[in-house]
């Protein structure tokens, strides 16, 4: 490790490693990159504990296009991220699609409005009435459903740590350095950040600092005398076995079931021979950064009743595993924050993904690298999700947040 780097990235999970990869992959960048990661096991990282899915079914064109790029990147991941003398990294992508169900006029109207945006962006999404839904997924009880939205392609789930480790391995091969340490202070001279001090005592000069600290983003920002409205919010996930699985019963997508979002907010998707499920919590306070105890009652009180009502196949199910992870929750509008601080321009935010970090990681990493190399966005313009909206208290509207 040297005592000076052009870019210091705080956090080496999927966002930080994506930034490191895109910087070092760009022939227009000849600088040095240091990634500081406090826990290289990533056992409690939001990346490792997520449900690792990707969808294009958003209401805002920017989020649709971010995921379209992410889907393309994931499809080409094995070839793009090949590291010399290593086997091709396989993300084991399952093209299951997302299935949104609406049982009120308001929900149905939202699906129709979102669909117009998605189709305008070229997304392969269809709307189904009750009869069409029942034909596609005969295991579902659709008596109360008014409308459904289904992703024919470009959506599914994949290996979460595979994406992260793939970025990391390729970034290191291309020259990025990683250090196991923790940033405990950030030096600042007027409108520029200048150094990071590590827990080990090392003081590193930094030309740019990227805040990719996930749920700890606010801690990193405060070290520079700045702020970001991001806090850890807990989400519990449950893996359950099903006595009579409906997987294979669909008449679309070669029989594979989708990631279904019930009108109640409960979601469910296949996970190998099992199913993975979760739900929005009834109460959603900020939690301690080390609080990873699942909310066990959510399965019995919310998830199981909703699923049993939706399909008789889900009446006889049994939890076989559960865990809790953290969203890096943007309290302003639940959407990503990508861009420099308007006054301290060499402090760059890559935070607040609110559960969408894995699927938005490729586009966000590319965007941050463009800001550093060119001083602006070159491919997808993410100005609308910059930090300026935080200062102006101007939420970025996205209706399809789950």
TrEMBL record:
Highest taxon above the source species: Bacteria
Xref: InterPro entries: FAD-dep_OxRdtase, FAD/NAD-bd_sf
The FAD dependent oxidoreductase domain, residue ranges: 6-371
Annotated organism of origin: Paracoccus seriniphilus
UniProt keyword annotation of Membrane present: yes
GO terms of molecular function: oxidoreductase activity
GO cellular component terms listed in the entry, alphabetical order: cytoplasm
Keyword rRNA-binding recorded: no
GO biological process terms on file: mitochondrial respiratory chain complex I assembly
Residue ranges of the TM segments: 7-24
Name listed for the protein in its UniProt record: Glycine/D-amino acid oxidase
Keywords noted in UniProt: Membrane, Oxidoreductase, Transmembrane, Transmembrane helix
């Amino acid at each position: 490790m040297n005592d000076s780097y052009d870019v210091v990235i705080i956090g080496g999970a999927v966002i930080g490693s994506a930034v490191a990869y895109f910087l070092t992959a760009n022939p227009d960048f000849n600088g040095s990159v240091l990634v500081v990661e406090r826990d290289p096991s990533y056992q409690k990282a939001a990346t490792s504990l997520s449900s690792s899915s990707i969808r294009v079914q958003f209401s805002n064109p920017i989020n649709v296009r971010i995921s379209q790029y992410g889907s393309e990147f994931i499809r080409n991941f094995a070839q793009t991220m090949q590291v010399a003398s290593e086997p091709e990294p396989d993300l084991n992508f399952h093209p299951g699609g997302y299935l949104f169900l609406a049982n009120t006029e308001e929900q149905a109207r939202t699906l129709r409005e979102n669909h117009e945006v998605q189709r305008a962006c070229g997304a392969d999404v269809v709307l189904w009435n009750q009869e069409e839904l029942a034909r596609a997924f005969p295991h579902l009880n659709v008596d109360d459903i008014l409308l459904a939205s289904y992703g024919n392609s470009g959506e599914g789930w994949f290996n979460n740590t595979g994406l992260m480790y793939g970025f990391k391995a390729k970034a290191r091969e291309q020259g990025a350095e990683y250090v196991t340490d923790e940033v405990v202070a950030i030096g600042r001279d007027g409108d520029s950040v200048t150094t990071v001090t590590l827990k080990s005592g090392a003081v590193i000069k930094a030309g740019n600092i990227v805040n990719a600290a996930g749920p700890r983003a606010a801690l990193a920002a405060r070290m520079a005398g700045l702020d970001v409205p991001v806090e850890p919010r807990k989400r519990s996930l449950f893996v359950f076995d099903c006595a009579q699985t409906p997987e294979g019963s669909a008449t679309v997508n070669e029989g594979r079931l989708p990631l279904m979002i019930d009108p109640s907010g409960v979601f469910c998707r296949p996970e190998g021979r099992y199913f993975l499920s979760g739900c929005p919590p009834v109460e959603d306070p900020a939690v301690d950064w080390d609080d990873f105890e699942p909310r066990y009652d959510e399965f019995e009180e919310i998830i199981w009743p909703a699923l049993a009502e939706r399909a008789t196949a889900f009446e006889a199910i049994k939890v076989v595993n559960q865990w809790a992870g953290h969203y890096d929750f943007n309290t302003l509008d639940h959407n990503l924050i990508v861009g420099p601080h308007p006054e301290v321009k060499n402090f760059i935010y890559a935070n607040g993904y609110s559960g969408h970090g894995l699927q938005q990681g490729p586009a966000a990493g590319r965007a941050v690298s463009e800001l550093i190399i060119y001083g602006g966005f070159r491919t997808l313009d993410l100005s609308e999700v910059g930090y300026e909206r935080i200062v102006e208290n101007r939420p970025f509207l996205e209706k399809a947040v789950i």
